[in-house]
Amino acid sequence: MSTDTDATARAQLIDLAAQFYDQFELGEIPHMELPTRSKTNIELDEEANVWVYGDRTSTRSANSVRGARKLLKAVYTIEFLADQLEQDRSSTLRELYYLSESWDNKEAQFNDQDESNQLIEDLEIVSEVTREDFHMRPEESGATIMGPLFLREQTRRGDREIHCQEDVGEGGYQIPNNPDTIEFLSSDAEFILCVETGGMRDRLVENGFDDDYGALVVHLKGQPARATRRITKRLHDELELPVTVFTDADPWSYRIFGSVAYGSIKSAHLSEYLATPQAQFIGIQPSDIVEYDLPTDPLTDSDINALENELTDPRFQTDYWEEQIELQLDIGKKAEQQALAARGLDFVTDTYLPERLEEMGIF
């Protein structure tokens, strides 16, 4: 069923295509201006406390063969998206890449999926419409929620009401591609616990952590999808729930936290929509490795390089992070969440997390 949002998104896309036409009419070379998407063009929005693109821009222009091809691909993609919205259909990012193979102009076809993914991001930025409102979906992320939350979800078969403990199996409630179609009806939750790995998520559920502590356990499935970050932000903002992020002790996991809390370079144009700057890190700390004598693996050269880069990453410019990263570089070790099992299967839910939550003032 087509909505007002669909009509607005379609109008924005058509307006964008019309701008190219107007440039032709004025005798200008067609072009599209975009923020430079690099670490050096990320800055803190002090009001929203999230990382956004700065003032540096780059221009996609038809004054070169390469630039002309990019704009041609943009026009074909805009036409496809506008038709998709008019027909109330949807497609995945992967399908868009393959669909371009059928376009009548070979120059408009994508070379690889990275190229088509980036173009969708470009169109989000210049049209100020999210890909979810374009009806574009990623491949299934499988991220889930388990906990005391009652919600209503809009589906093609009508609305349905779901309790994220009573009406779901052990796997939990699967987060839809567009969480803005969800209405939160009621909740007895005390806080949100975003968990990196499936093994730890299963341990928490099996031990009844969601019941015992009123936790909404959000399984991030590694680097979280946009839908996961969006629903986390909505749960925080609308239900006023504290957000904690529970990950491994390695540089890649710290970036998972940074993505939830402050946003990422790739989606900095959506940081205010996706990021939750109030999120707190409750993951395994380098200091925990020392204190609990956890089983570890040695840092690789790639790990060391990533940690050193994080020391200059604006998302980690605090005394806490500098102290923990310097300690990790000093001991040369990393540890997984499941390493806590060395102290017993119940240690994480009976001791580790309750103590950390108390230190944070959640309880």
From TrEMBL:
InterPro entries: Spo11/TopoVI_A, Spo11/TopoVI_A_N, Spo11/TopoVI_A_sf, Topo_VI_alpha, TopoVI_A, TOPRIM_Topo6A/Spo11, WH-like_DNA-bd_sf
Residue intervals of the Type II DNA topoisomerase VI subunit A all-beta domain: 139-188
Binding site for Mg(2+): 196, 248
Keyword Nucleus in record: no
CDD domains, A to Z: TOPRIM_TopoIIB_SPO
Membrane-spanning segments: none
Domain Topoisomerase 6 subunit A/Spo11 TOPRIM: 191-357
Residues in coiled coil: none
Catalytic residues (UniProt): 98
Pfam family of the protein (one): Topo_VI_alpha
Cofactor(s) of this protein: Mg(2+)
Domain of life: Archaea
NCBIfam families: PRK04342.1-1
Listed name of the protein: Type 2 DNA topoisomerase 6 subunit A
